[in-house]
Design a protein that fits this description.
This protein is mostly helical. It has 9 helices and 5 strands. Strands 1-4-5 form a 3-stranded mixed β-sheet, with no helix packed on it. The protein has a two-stranded antiparallel sheet with strand order 2-3. A hairpin with a 2-residue loop joins β2 and β3. The model is unreliable at about 270-275 (pLDDT under 50).
């Protein structure tokens, strides 16, 4: 039996500039948005062309608002509605933490709907390009979770060589943040990049969006088996966690989008989304 690993005492603050502190978690959001913007600018120009580079530049602001507002409101509504109902001013205090990926996803979806309708773009075609790069941001976010020493895993068996001792946490734990970084981030990003290379797939409106939704739901649901549920929520029926419950509609939507992509006409250059 090997000895457990000890969690490195990372400083959650990446940089101090006078009274200003830049945290790794905030930098993960910034890096994800900028890297995603850079890549989407190139993906939309692949045949069939679904948007202009200028339109991608404009969408960056929409995506930022969707991620932040949706992520925060999703956490408030899905995880601690009773608490924030009695402490409404704390809803805007995002620097104390508390963001939900599922809420952020809904925020970006609403931003996509409004943006593509206003610019007369194909909603599904544009969302296929955007969702391709989302796993990259997920990977950055999970690394930031690990640096912060948050969202720790469940207790691990003594035979697991990479089980980890976290400060202030009883027992050796699964480093579940790294599991999620690999599955939701690296692995899913690799799959999405491979699929988008195929023109026949790019022509199927909603196929890549469906693969992302289904792939994330599967990866997150599996990783939740190793992640300690939030203490204020615990487990639900059949031992499910909130993360797994929220993944159910994502998986259903993903399957539907994949099926629908074969029922709709193939994308043409800069088509208008169907109403």
């Amino acid at each position: 039996m090997s000895s457990p690993l000890y969690y490195p005492n990372f400083d959650p603050v990446m940089l101090h500039i006078g009274p200003l502190s830049i945290r790794w978690y905030a930098m993960a959001y910034i890096a994800a948005l900028l890297a995603g913007w850079f890549l989407v600018r190139r993906l939309v120009q692949r045949e069939p062309v679904v948007a202009t580079v200028t339109q991608v530049d404009d969408f960056l602001t929409w995506a930022t608002l969707g991620v932040i507002l949706g992520g925060r409101l999703g956490y408030v509504c899905f995880y601690q509605p009773a608490y924030y109902l009695t402490h409404p001013l704390q809803i805007i205090q995002v620097w104390h933490g508390g963001m939900s990926f599922h809420g952020g996803a809904l925020g970006v979806i609403f931003a996509l709907i409004i943006f593509t309708r206003y610019n007369r773009l194909s909603f599904l075609g544009f969302s296929d390009r955007v969702t391709t790069v989302v796993p990259m941001g997920l990977g950055f976010g999970r690394l930031a979770n690990f640096i912060n020493g948050e969202l720790v895993g469940r207790e691990a068996s003594d035979w697991l060589p990479w089980r980890m001792i976290y400060p202030g946490v009883e027992g050796a734990r699964h480093p579940s943040e790294l599991y999620e970084c690999f599955s939701e981030g690296v692995l899913l990003f690799f799959i999405m990049l491979c699929l988008i290379q195929c023109k026949a797939i790019r022509e199927r409106p909603g196929f890549l969006s469906g693969v992302f939704l289904l792939g994330y739901a599967m990866a997150r649901s599996v990783c939740e088996l190793f992640r300690e549920p939030d203490a204020f929520l615990g487990y639900f029926a059949f031992g499910l966690t909130m993360g797994q419950i929220l993944c159910i509609p994502m998986a259903i939507a993903g399957i539907y989008f994949i099926w629908q992509s074969y029922q709709l006409p193939k994308l043409q250059n800069l088509t208008v989304s169907e109403k």
